[in-house]
Design goal:
Distance between the termini: 13 Å
Number of helices: 10
Structural class: alpha/beta
Strand order of the largest sheet: 5-4-3-2-1-14-15-16
Number of strands: 16
Shape: globular
CATH class of the largest domain: Alpha Beta
CATH topology of the largest domain: Rossmann fold
């Protein structure tokens, strides 16, 4: 079968463990695009950071940010979003901080990344990967009343985050609360997902889900892998993510994505 559209996660999938694109991946992505096939990146990162990866790949495509909560078109115009209200995001952040004071909670709204303490090593590390600017302060003061919060990100000890997920998921059924990495817990609108964003872009391009191939490595990719005609889990993905995939690629450090792309589109 010839697939007509590609969706790919970034961290753990498109880039290697050093968060770098390899020459093989760049070549494969450009090869796919040269055939007129949309190559869409979907990530937990901010859209501006996803766009940077597009620039490194040398392609001009829409981007999916915040694990599906926000889509920018190829000219950086907002075309779709699903988020939390300012009041709900602040309520959740305060509740998490009160119950689990050792965790760090960041608030994301479009281009704004609000943190309590920009000097924290975990935040500096995240910034070194995404290149996004941080704004230190209180979301209640920095956000407009009508602001859409695309994500609240809790970072910290993996076991503690498991407890946060177990405790808060039943309390906030209107939210999607899940891990995107062992030490990252994302809180988003229940309607925000990579598969929802993929469906929006499929409609925009006139392509059905069965004509899509998607790549991912973690729990926030599962719905996208299920959505696609062929869902490809990376070799470095957790076992239960691999279990739902149609195909298992080699790891992100062994150019697994590039190998599958060249196999399917070569």
């Amino acid at each position: 079968m010839t697939y007509k559209m590609v969706f790919s996660d970034i961290d753990g999938t498109l880039v290697n463990s050093n968060h770098c694109l390899t020459p093989a991946t760049i070549k494969a992505a450009q090869h796919v695009v040269s055939k007129g096939i949309p190559f869409i990146l979907g990530s937990g990162r901010q859209p501006s950071s996803v766009r940077e990866i597009n620039q490194e790949l040398g392609i001009k495509m829409p981007v999916i940010g915040f694990s599906g909560a926000l889509i920018w078109d190829e000219n950086d115009n907002k075309v779709w979003e699903s988020g939390l209200t300012k009041a709900l995001a602040i309520e959740i952040k305060r509740a998490v901080n009160a119950e689990f004071p050792d965790l760090c909670c960041s608030t994301y709204s479009d281009r704004l990344w609000i943190v309590d303490d920009a000097s924290l090593p975990s935040l500096r590390f995240e910034q070194s990967i995404t290149h996004a600017p941080m704004t230190e302060g209180n979301p209640a003061e920095l956000l407009a009343d009508n602001a859409v919060v695309h994500k609240v990100l809790c970072t910290g000890d993996a076991d503690v985050l498991d407890k946060v997920q177990a405790h808060f998921a039943p309390l906030y059924p209107m939210c999607r609360i899940y891990k995107s990495q062992p030490t990252y817990l994302e809180v988003m609108n229940i309607s925000a997902s990579k598969s929802a964003a993929a469906a929006v872009l499929c409609e925009r391009f006139g392509i059905t889900a069965r004509d899509v191939i998607a790549f991912g490595d973690n729990y926030n990719d599962v719905d996208m892998l299920k959505f696609a005609g062929m869902g490809v889990a990376m070799g470095n993905a957790p076992a239960d993510v691999k279990q739902i995939a149609d195909k298992i690629a080699d790891t992100n450090d062994n150019d697994g994505l590039a190998a599958v792309l060249m196999q399917e589109f070569g």
